Amino acid sequence: MSREHLNYIGGEWVGSEHFAANLNPSDLADTVGLYASGSTDDVAQAVHAARRALPAWSGSGIQQRADALDGIGRELLARREELGTLLAREEGKTLPEAIGEVARAGNIFKFFAGECLRSGGELLPSVRPGIGVEITREPVGVVGLITPWNFPIAIPAWKIAPALAWGNCVVFKPADLVPGSAWALAEIIARAGLPAGTFNLVMGRGREVGQAIVDHPGIDAVSFTGSAAVGRQVAAACVARGAKVQLEMGGKNPQVVLDDADLGTAVELCVQSAFFSTGQRCTAASRLIVTEGIHDRFVAAMVERMRQLRVGHALATGTDIGPVVSASQLDQDLRYIELGLNEGAALAWGGQRLHGETEGHYLAPALFTETTSRMTLNREEVFGPVAGVIRVRDYDEALAVANDTSFGLSAGIATTSLKHATHFKRHAQAGMVMVNLPTAGVDYHVPFGGRKGSSYGPREQGRHAAEFYTTVKTAYTLA
Hints:
Blueprint (H helix, E strand, L loop, with lengths): L3 E2 L1 E3 L2 E3 L4 E6 L2 E10 L3 H19 L3 H17 L1 H12 L3 H23 L4 E4 L5 E9 L2 E5 L7 H12 L3 E5 L6 H11 L8 E3 L4 H10 L5 E5 L2 H14 L2 E5 L4 E5 L5 H13 L9 E7 H16 L19 H16 L3 E4 L3 E2 L7 E2 L2 E6 L14 E7 L2 H8 L4 E2 L1 E5 L3 H10 L4 E4 L15 E2 L2 E2 L9 H4 E9 L1
Helix pairs in contact: 1-7, 2-4, 3-4, 4-5, 9-10
């Protein structure tokens, strides 16, 4: 029998009428656990509990907050292999990637433990004699956090940690597809000594639990990571009732390869950007923009490198790429592969359904050539191990093609030219730019976010997270 995992509301583990099975995409016969499917009533109770806890937590001492967050971070780091195994089992990341994600979550909590002690303000003189001005930051209030399935512990960490660090109370809804890692994180937080109601977990479907969070008048701010279509709906609902909103909505990220690039470096970073984590990263590079002088050698080297990749069970030693997360996501990937062929792209390697020792959602990474920036394959986010090569004349055309997208999260360039690298960093229309590095892979202490259709509102992570999780107060005092 699989264990039932409950919601956490007002400091208590709360049962549910319905539970959903969490299946292992590497082995569909393996049920990770049963997880509560919450309701709008659960959200209402969680919001009520958070509002009751807000005065005490927002007025708590900075040492209390720092100690709590540091303890959460230390436990995550101490249990990284155990929790990494859970993550790989439920989401399909390879075990080394999953362990790394748990470590990242632990370091995020420890970073924000330090931020509790580094909070500051400004003292300014007024233009009027004898008056002082004090500028401080205060918690925004009760925040609703809605997270996706592709980073089931890191993204919750980089939303929850700053929210708590700056004195907010939290109502958290993880992705219903992979709730196991989020539940494990919630269980650690539940033992961290926070006042009851400071942190609440409500699992369940987005259209019910997520929508209830977005619509509830007791939620002061909503941070959402997910699809662009849903993100626009979240923004409209929050703006309509005056709630603060922060959105991260994916990307269609370019990786430019210039004639002067080191071929081995270019191939390796493109393979990592496009296919690792099964391409299921909003920072993945699915548009490989290659100048004509290196194009043919690059494609040949990419195919040779892809032949060496091992697709298999996420927990197996030597696996490079795990399964696609679900049957519906696999179907979406296969539809885009078929669409690419129908639009005239050439499939240079992969793209076929694979079968392993266990029944799972396995897909050989696909590399298309002879693609154009107008093809649907290069316009819409596939969110799978599928990449298209676009041949261009020179750097100027490469930059123009790179920016020819409605998204703007991450962009990369492979080159040995300081001139081109410097120009690209300035003129790539993306929130994050990588030079001779994969487009996916960012530090936990620096801002994360993009431009255009990728992001809306303040940045996540690092000190810049204060822009969302706090509000600014200006106070005047007559001396």
